[in-house]
Design a protein that fits this description.
This protein folds into 3 domains: about 80 residues, no CATH class; about 375 residues, FAD/NAD(P)-binding domain, CATH 3.50.50.60; about 130 residues, FAD/NAD(P)-binding domain. The two termini are about 45 Å apart. Helix 4 links the parallel strand 4 and strand 5. It is of the alpha/beta class.
Length: about 600
Amino acid sequence: MLVIKNKGQPATLTQLARAIERTGIVPLNKQHRIKVELRYLQQGPERFGEVDLDNAQQVELAAYRIARGQIPRPISGRQAPSRAPGVYALAIIGSGTTAAYYLDTLGPAHDHSGTIVIGQQNPWIHKRGQGISYINHTWRQVAMPSTNTREYGGNESFANRAEFGRMAEAVVSRRAGRWVKSSATRIEKLREGVYRISYNDRGPKSFKAEKVVFTAGAGSIRKPPEAEENSTVRNRSRIIDMDTFIRDKAVQEKPRGAAKRVVVWGSNAAIDAVAAAKKHGWTIAAWLYSRDGQPAWLPGTRYLSEPYKLQEVHQHVYTDRRRLKIQDSGGLLKVLDGADIVADTVDYVVYGLGSEDLLTQRQGGVMDPSVLEGQQALSPILDTSGVFGNALEQGRQAQAFLGWQNASGTFQVFGLAAENYAGAVDPRGNLARIAPTDPRVMALKQWLSGDVLTVGQLTYIRSALRAVNHFVPGSIEHGVDYSHADANALRVHLAARYPELPELHASWFIRMIKRIRVGSIQTRLPHGFTEQQVNHIEEQLRAKQEEFRGRRKQPTNIDAVNWQWQLAQALIELTPAPGEEVAEGLSKLRVEDR
């Protein structure tokens, strides 16, 4: 789908074709195909979005898409039905950060009158607690795409949880045509082809929508059996999930005098609870995790330094989860691994064992089988338009994983919900969650900074949704985040800021930027390129443009290859030594403020 406008008013395909020709991005030997390819975008299955002729960046993005080619053809005989009265065009399930990213990347000119959002308060504001006051990412990594945040910041500048949550919530409030502050209980696809979303608000209610975007995150946190209501543990109220501990216990019951003891069960899923306990003076009697689920330390984390030093916490690695038992110990608890006591006289056992899939969880999954349209499972949404590719590597890399959808593409899943959904086929032929090492996941992670490991992390979600909605911020002409931008954003920025730079050099430059982020450099640049590196990149781009200004020089492949190689070597030399960037960031904070 492609919508063409000029200063907000309808415009013609011919007007856009002429504007694309003027950009010079589409090669001369392809310009006769511009109108044909635009019709494919208008009538075909690819959701390209809106292009306003008054927005040079949007025109350049359309030009770049046509230059890449491989636009899917329309399916003959299919015509989009008009929307029935009382049916929303779009329903977004969930009102957290993923929903905000989706709404933001639809662009400022999108008509949201037919958009309904259903969801509660952003979890970063209250639910996940302020026992740890920050998200382990900088603003450059997680800010709304439309802000085009580019300022460098190390781990001294991690985003505040509540501030970040309020920012995302403001986007939902401002963009949604209607916001129902409840939770969806069931999503069904009806015979007439629309979806019915049920919820409770002083009784059962529902609404209908043509398309559903599911961004509601995770389902219920997995509990140890001793925390269930039918447990025989008398003190089971002391067995709590990590959010409850961080939100209601870590600070409120902070030890004052006699030490309080806590056991934390879970590796990376529970790591923030371990950090909150350490920061607020609790005695961590044991940190439990399996041999196969040991903590993966994010490059750039504060948790390996004072006041945390979580690597020094007493850790108990178990081999069989079924042997772990939680029992009463007077008015407190004790934890055993088989016959061995791991910890006794424990005030709280805090669990972070991952979460269920909200769509299909055994008790209360919200997705009705009708949503699958007769298929066994949802299918992956892949980057078929080359947002995470490059003209020099076309056909040689996996298509990046963005989310899940049904056959018609009218039900889509993004964010943590996409990470939790079991739609990938494992080596034994069973459906499983998509692995962080899946080549399709790696294809996107290669475009991000080194501390992004999984599909459900904010930086990954943001990049995936920029690609889904073909979003480029309006300020892209003035600057771009070289550390997290995809090929689309980089190419549009180069076309707008450095119009004399040849396409050959631009393609080699984009390939180099991706390559330099990957591997050992990623761990030394956990939050992306430093200010010094960005300055060097822009100096070299300005210098190379001057060489070609007024066509004083003809581009050659040898020149392009040598230039990008020299630039890559310079960026490697400017990369801080291992640990140096982290140490410098921490030195800007008092230990008690970390």
